[in-house]
Amino acid sequence: MVNRAALDRHRGRRPSRDRQGAGRSFPFLNERGAVNLAAPFATVRGAASDPPRAVYDRFVAVDLPTLVAGYGPLPGAAAVKDETGTWGTVGACRTVTFTDGATATERVLSADPPTADGESSAAGRFVYRVTDYTNALRWFAHGSDGDWRFEPDGRGGTRIVWAYTFRPRGLPSAIVLWPVVRGPVRGYMKSVMRCFIADP
After folding, report:
1. In the predicted model, what is the mean pLDDT of the chain?
2. Partner of 76 for a Cys bridge, out of 61, 70, 95, 132, CB 3.0 to 4.6 A?
3. Structural domains for the chain
4. Other Cβ atoms closer than 10 A to 27
C-alpha cells in the first residue's frame, strides 16, 4: 500500500488536511492515518502545595470510594475487600467493588516513596495493575496499569502525573478502547485528580 503522506513529503508537498488531522479526530489512528498500535492510554496532571512525600503518603492511604465517585457512564468505587498485604507495598492485592456491582482486582507493582528533604527530594512513583474485570472491559482488555508520579516542583510543592494504560486483547480491541480512553476514561481521571487535590 502506498503511504501517500510520505509520498507527499518526498515531493515537497504538505500532507492533506484529512491526513494531518487523523490522529486528532480518530485517536486510534496516528498522524499518518495508519492504525495506532500503542496501547490505549491517557494522562492527567495536577499540583499540590504539600511536599511530594506528604502527597504520596496521602495517596496511598486514601479511601477509594471517597476518591473514585464515578464519571458519566463509568461507575464509582463502592467498597474495597479481600485485602492481602498492606496496601502501598509491592505485591499487596485487593478487590474493588464498583457502584454497578462489577468487581476488579488491584495489585501493587511498584511503590517508591519520594525522599522527604524538600526541594531536593527525588520523585516518587506508585504503579498498580487492574485485572479480573467482571464488566464489559473483560472482553476488550487483559487489564490496565495505573502509574502515579509525585515530582518536586522546586517550590516545596508537588507535580502529580497519573498515566493509565489498557492492555488490549488485540488490535480490534485497541480500536474500540482508544475513543473510550480519550473520552470518558480521561474525564474520569480528571475528576479523580480534582477530588484528590481538593481533599488534603
Report:
1. 85
2. 70
3. 42-198 (3.30.530.20)
4. 19
Question: At 125, is the secondary structure helix, strand, or coil?
Answer: strand
CA distance to 40, 75, 148, 188, per residue, from 44 (Å): 14, 19, 10, 10
- What does the pLDDT average to over 124-141? 96
Contacts of 7 (CB under 8 A, 6+ apart): none
Grid coordinates in use for 108?
Answer: 501493587
Q: Which residues contact 112 (CB under 8 A, 6 or more apart)?
A: 124, 125, 126
Cell numbers at 136, concatenated? 464489559
Regarding pTM above 0.90, the answer is: no
Q: Which residues pair with 128 in a beta bridge?
A: 108, 146
Backbone phi, then psi, for 14, in 5-degree steps?
A: -80, 140
Distance, in Å, from the CA atom of 190 to the CA atom of 182, rounded to the nearest integer, reads 11
Q: What is residue 199's predicted lDDT score, i.e. its pLDDT?
A: 67
- Using pLDDT thresholds of 50, 70 and 90, give the confidence band for residue 122: confident
